[in-house]
Amino acid sequence: MLFVTTLLSVTAAVIAQFTPLFSEAMRTGWLFYGIILFSLFTISVLVARLPIVNGLMPLRSFKGNADTPAAVTALAVGMQAVTSLCTPHVFTNGTYHIYVPIAITALLMNSMGKLLIILRTLDNFRFLSSPSARYAGKIYTDMKNAEKMVSEFPSKVNIIGYVKRSRLMSNFLRLSYAPDPSEEMAGKTAPFMAVIAVLFGVIYGIMAKDFAGGVTSFALTACVGTPMVGLIALNIPMKKLCRNALNGDAMISGYEAVQQFGDTNAIMIDVSQLYPAGTVTLSGVKIFRQSKLNEALMAGAAIMYAVNGTMSYIFENMVRCPREKLPKVESVVYEDEKGLMAWVSKQRVLLGSRALMQAHNIKIPKKELEDKYTKNGNAVTYISVSGELIAMFVLSYRTDREIAVSLRELEENGVSFIVRTIDPHVTKEKIAQKFGLFHRCITVLPTGLGNLCHEVMGSVDESARAYVVTKGRISSFARAVSGCIKMKSNTGLSKILQYLGIGTGIVLSGLISFVSGFQKLGSVEILGFILFWGVAAVAASLIKK
Asked: How far is CA 195 from the centre of its chain?
């Protein structure tokens, strides 16, 4: 309805200003043009009565909300529309212009902004209700340990993001409909602009001794001096951000999520997220003790499941045994850049690199044999049980392109990576090389901090706030965080442009009212002025940095 009334009122204003079609009718009887605009305005007010009332109510406490700019504009123009019926001669002879099309456009843009919020929330809810959307984005809150984790990085701000499995995502609707910068901006500016508009109207009316002129000055100032495009200027890029996140299997609930993750400067990643199922494959096996091979494979599978290691799926394919039937792992220790030492069924099991075997005096083949299998970039992992070398596994590490691209995008946005690994072949240098990252933005945690990281990310929460939700892939979370960082950065420029538009509008209204006269500025020109700053604000928030 608002779209139709906006289209009709703007068309009527263009015809009245730029064609002679209404000229004869307005000379002989002003009712034709005036009643058309008044009727369209009445319909629009009836349709949008709830946001108008909602926007005007906070003004009693000198406050505002997202509806206030459009409501103030509608009130001011409504007074002018009534005045035009009582003093038709000043409007029919071109002294003043009726600004009904601008008020209806303001109501339309306000409703479009709300529609974008509703559509965004609906799309997000569909994703959230899927059974696999059970990983919540979170911010690490232990500042003492956070400082230790980021000690290698130059940034002094420790805002570390990570994903964690949760059984329930809470506060979804509250976060989706939470106030955003457009409401904050309207709350600050709309009350002041309303007062300025009233003052302009009163002063002009007294100086010119013209009630219709005072009301018109009030209406003009309200039209150009309130941020009526604020809601739509923010929610067009917000809707785009949420759609892009959904395309990447992630959900961003709203601007609260942007506030939460927009300043992230590091993310915690487990090695199993860097190398998910299918990226670490078995290229070959050399067996040294056939009689204990099955026992070693069962022990290796139990260890990998216990630590969520990169070889979990390899052992799963080799053993093909239910996890509950595997031997019990009594303890596991990761030795930095060497591998795992564990006690399984009261036997010491070593699973790792050549350096691990040498550190525990396990007899292994000469280096030349190992080099034979690692020429193509493969890696070798040994397994021993009770001091005996059982087998050597030749592993191939494949980089997931989607993960690599999303991590590089994060790096471009100033985010570093905190990696917890229990794989001796996944080192800082290897990660930088395989994923195309700068090595100085990566830190591989030592065992103590790595265990802490594993405890934080490996446990399951009963509930978590639905700021950012994913299906578990690190690439989805990385893209969501990148989007939040860009959105928060670009919103600042959009707000500056809107404030600049408001300031320019106030100056323009003052000059028109007190210097050049209202004949110079009709509804079409004012509408063009408002739309110019609105388009600029939207474009600023869509800029990719």
From this structure: 35
Amino acid identity of 108? L
Give the integer Cα–Cα distance in Å for 411 and 493: 22
Question: Using CA atoms, how far apart are residues 477 and 7, in angstroms rounded to an integer?
Answer: 42
Report long-range pairs for 311-318 (Cβ below 8 Å, ≥24 apart). 311/280, 311/351, 311/381, 311/393, 311/395, 311/423, 312/272, 312/277, 313/277, 313/278, 313/280, 314/280, 314/281, 314/282, 314/393, 314/395, 317/282, 318/282
User: Which two tokens mark 498?
Assistant: 């809107």
State whether residue 155 is helix, strand or coil: coil
Q: Which pair of structure tokens corresponds to residue 114?
A: 């709300």
Structure token pair of residue 430? 């290897």
281's enclosing H/E stretch is: strand 280-287
Which helix (DSSP H) or strand (DSSP E) does residue 543 occupy? none
User: What is the value of pTM for the model shown?
Assistant: 0.85
pLDDT tens per residue, range 72-125: 999 999 998 888 777 766 666 666 778 899 999 999 999 999 999 999 999 999
**Strand ranges across the sheet with 416-420:** 250-252, 468-470, 135-139, 160-165, 266-270, 416-420, 442-444
Q: Is residue 243 within 8 Å of 125, Cβ to Cβ?
A: no
Helices (H), 209-332: 211-225, 230-247, 255-261, 271-274, 293-307, 312-319
Distance (Å, whole) CA 101 – CA 524: 8
- CA distances 180 to 257, 466, 480, Å, are 11, 16, 18
Q: Check residue 166 and report its DSSP letter.
A: B
Query: Which of 537, 454, 416 is closest to 158 using CA atoms?
Result: 416
Which amino acid belongs to residue 503?
G
C-alpha span between 405 and 437 (Å, rounded): 10
Give kind and range of the element (H or E) at residue 150: none
Rounded to a whole number, what is the distance in angstroms from the first to the last CA of the chain? 38
For 444, the 3-state DSSP assignment is: strand
Bridge partners (DSSP) of residue 269 are 419
* Long-range pairs of 143-151 with CB within 8 A, sequence gap ≥ 24: 145/449, 145/452, 148/449, 149/266, 149/268, 149/418, 149/443, 149/445, 149/449, 149/453, 150/265, 150/266, 150/416, 150/418, 150/443, 151/443
Which one, of 246, 270, 215, 251, lies nearest residue 98 by Cα?
A: 215
- In terms of DSSP bridges, do strands 160-165 and 266-270 run parallel, antiparallel, or are they unpaired? parallel
Q: d(Cα 407, Cα 161) in Å, to the nearest integer?
A: 13
- Token pair 């080099």 is at which residue? 371
- Rounded Cα gap, residues 436 and 409, in angstroms: 11
Q: Is 384 left (phi over 0), alpha (psi -120 to 50) or beta?
A: beta
Phi then psi for 343, rounded to 5 degrees? -110, 120
29: tokens are 């009887």
Q: Report which of 174, 38, 161 is spatially closest to residue 416, judged by C-alpha positions.
A: 161
Residue the block writes with tokens 């405890």: 455
Residue-wise pLDDT for 465-508, tens only, equals 999 999 989 999 999 999 999 888 877 777 888 888 888 888 87
Whole-number Å distance between alpha carbons of 37 and 472: 55
Q: Looking only at Cα atoms, what is the longest distance across the chain?
A: 110
